[in-house]
Amino acid sequence: MESLFIYYTTFSPILPEILIFLFLISQIIYLVFFSNHIFFGYITLGQSANTFLVLFLCGLLVNFFVLTDPSYESFNSHLTVNLSSLLVRGFMLITSAIIVFISSNYLNLKSVYQYEFSLLLLFSISGLSVLALSNDILTIFIALELQGLSFYLLATFYWSSEFNTEAGLKYFVLGSFSSCLLLFGFSLIYSVLGSITFETIQLLLNDDYNFSLALFGLFFILSAFLFKVGAAPFHMWLCDVYEGSLTPVTLFFAAVPKIVIFYMLLKLLFSVFSNESSFWSLFCQISGFFSIVVASIAALFQKKTKRLLAFSAISHAGFLLLAVSCFSFFSLRSIFFYLLVYIFMNLSVFSIILATTHSYILKYLIHWTYFFNRNAVLAVTFSILLLSLAGIPPLSGFYSKLLVMMSLVYQSQYTIALLTAILSCIASYYYIRLIKIFFFGTSVEGVWVSVQSRPLEFCIAIFSTIVVLLLASSDFILLLSSLFAMNLI
Questions:
Q1: How far apart are CA 104 and CA 81, in angstroms?
Q2: What's the pLDDT tens digit per position in 309-358?
Q3: pLDDT tens-place string over residues 438-477
Q4: CA distances (Å), origin 305, targets 146, 233, 243, 443
Q5: Which of 72, 129, 243, 464 would bridge 306 by S-S if both were Cys, CB 3.0 to 4.6 A apart?
Q6: 3-class secondary structure for the chain?
């Protein structure tokens, strides 16, 4: 009985990750065995794989509701589970299941091999899930590499497209460079402090010794993480990858890794390197403000839909980094609230793009001309979402940006808050310009939107309305944000 108890306490914190890897093995065996079966077609096999994946991800959520005391450590404290990591993992699984569900029809139309696609998604999910539990720098690197290798393959998944291959190659080269920066930073930390666990590093940094080389390592670690979230000046890969990848892959890149990577960044900065806040706070503030400046100005000249959304992602990453730089409990609440709103808005926006089944012709903004005349429900819904992304009240995007502004004001950063508000007003132009094209565009290159069933249109409209209106005033979301902040510090 004692040995069973030891096994339970060791492996119960990582039960979802164990189930993910077991499911991966079973899926590989199942798909290889049935791919040559006379009664199974390739597309049918891919659809069944996606169905199994959605059900499996939803089933994993049960694990988060049966834990009465979500505070565990395993593998000699190299992996830890607390309430904040449970929230992050649960939200990541929900988002991944939604993406797989809404992408199936698009992948069928593009004749994409879906079962390989679902396997790569699951590999990346497993890496991100382990990353959320990491409690030492070595586990962080391994988890990020598992996630990164899957992302490189997903970016080049549509092999018949030259743009897709180019995007994947750029992502691989620059991603490898960021991994080198991260590993170099971790090696400097280990060479100075002689430990890889968070608790030991935090205790050693509390001493009065001069650890200037450790700060040098922290600089490289921050640079690598800012590359992962697509913040300036490490954003050079984002626009090309967003544009060249398949639309479901772009959605996955924009939504799923953001919350986990930001969670780990907050865990490192607010917990491990909290005594060095004067250094990393200034670093995040400069990068965040520069991201907003670059995105607000560059997006004004964009003519392609995905590149516009890419610069929008850079701008939102800048807002999150400004909140990180405040280093307060209120800023932690605002970060989690902002992430929830931003990711659900991305799900809504891309679900509309995927709902237009021939969305491969929606490359340029001008292609959206006459959108309202051809599909009024989706046009109005898309317009509301764009206004929310711009931060127009009383939509949820306004309240998420307002919380970031309040975090800056509470830290007496009045100049940064004022300049950020001005840049946000400038950035509203490129969102409103797209809305103008929906309703008042006169180009002959208008979009052809396939006729969708009314239930699908109204489901998208209702989901988007919940996101942009009800999410902003939801006490439940604010409560989750407070629980996340309390369990992270």
A1: 33
A2: 999 999 999 999 999 999 888 899 899 989 988 988 888 888 888 877 55
A3: 888 766 555 555 545 555 555 666 666 666 666 656 666 7
A4: 30, 22, 8, 16
A5: 243
A6: CHHHHHHHHHHHHHHHHHHHHHHHHHHHHHHHHHCCCCCCCHHHHHHHHHHHHHHHHHHHHHHHCCCCCCCEEECCCCEEECHHHHHHHHHHHHHHHHHHHHHHHHHHHCCCCHHHHHHHHHHHHHHHHHHHHECEHHHHHHHHHHHHHHHHHHHCCCCCCHHHHHHHHHHHHHHHHHHHHHHHHHHHHHHHHCCCEHHHHHHHHCCCCCCHHHHHHHHHHHHHHHHHHCCCCCCCCHHHHHHHCCHHHHHHHHHHHHHHHHHHHHHHHHHHCHHHHHHHHHHHHHHHHHHHHHHHHHHHHCCEHHHHHHHHHHHHHHHHHHHHHHCCHHHHHHHHHHHHHHHHHHHHHHHHHHHCCCHHHCCEHHHHCCHHHHCHHHHHHHHHHHHHHHCCCCCHHHHHHHHHHHHHHHCCCHHHHHHHHHHHHHHHHHHHHHHHHHHHCCCCCCCCCCCCCHHHHHHHHHHHHHHHHHCCCCHHHHHHHHHHHHHHC
Tokens of 473: 């005033």
